[in-house]
Amino acid sequence: MATSKKIVKGPAVKAAKARPPVAAPARIAGRRPLKGAEKAPGRIIAKETATGPVRKTVKTRQAKPGKPPVVQWKPQQFVVTHRKGSEFKPGLRSYAHYRDLATDKATGGAVQAHVIRLIGRCDPKVVSLLHHHGVQFQMIYMLKGWMVGEYEGQGKIRMEAGSCWIQPHGIRHTVLDYSHNCEMVEIILPANFDTVTY
User: pTM of the full predicted structure?
Assistant: First the structure.
């Protein structure tokens, strides 16, 4: 959902030829990872032949989110935005429009907050892309309608008007479906961060 300035494709990482095979991460009891979340950053598959084992590097997408950015607090300004006369503008996602709440300006880049309005019908080919955000804090509060998402370690959850959730740094997630009138408030620290898609 976020309006980060930068989208980074998760790079494929080659494993060193001398290293032994890397096993996929073990599942946590009672929790089902997202599709594709069990892939190791790089695996070596050994295959026995008549002349001996042959090692082949298989590229997989990087799963580690890295460290969250550090919020730099600066002197804050008094800023007011009103619903009347405000505009929803296109942003990071083609299926969403954003109303900026000017927290980036008020906090010198420490906080980003906006109202998100999802547009049109949910097209899984465009919407349902597995990704994570490199943030220190992210909170979403549903104002209207509903949205179904899938969250790493949590499974599928339907968020409705009044639902509020925290997305920890690096949690892989995807939007599966939403209503025609879906609208939510999102608060993120810091204002500028990376989004990695898989």
Answer: 0.68
List the Cα angle 100/101/102 in 5-degree steps. 90
Burial of 141 (0-12, 13-18, 19+ CB in 10 A): middle
Which of the pair, 173 or 18, is modelled with greater confidence? 173
Closest CA to 21 of 38, 36, 40: 40
Question: Which residue in this structure is represented by tokens 């907050």?
Answer: 113
Side by side, which strands form the sheet with 155-160? 6-9, 194-197, 131-133, 173-178, 146-151, 155-160
**How many Å apart are CA 36 and CA 30, to the nearest integer?**
18
When pLDDT is averaged across residues 167-179 and rounded to a whole number, the result is: 95
Distances (CA, A) of 145 to 15, 38, 105: 45, 32, 29
Q: Structural domain boundaries of the chain?
A: 68-197
- Give the burial string for 111-140 (b: 16+ CB within 10 Å, else e): bbbbbbbbeeebeeeebeebbbbbbbebeb
Query: How many beta carbons lie within 10 A of that of residue 188, not counting itself?
Result: 25
Fold that domain 68-197 belongs to in CATH: Jelly Rolls (2.60.120)
Cα torsion angle, 90, 95, 98, 103, sign: negative
Q: Check if the beta carbon of residue 175 is closer than 8 Å to that of residue 145.
A: no
Average confidence (pLDDT) over 124-138: 93
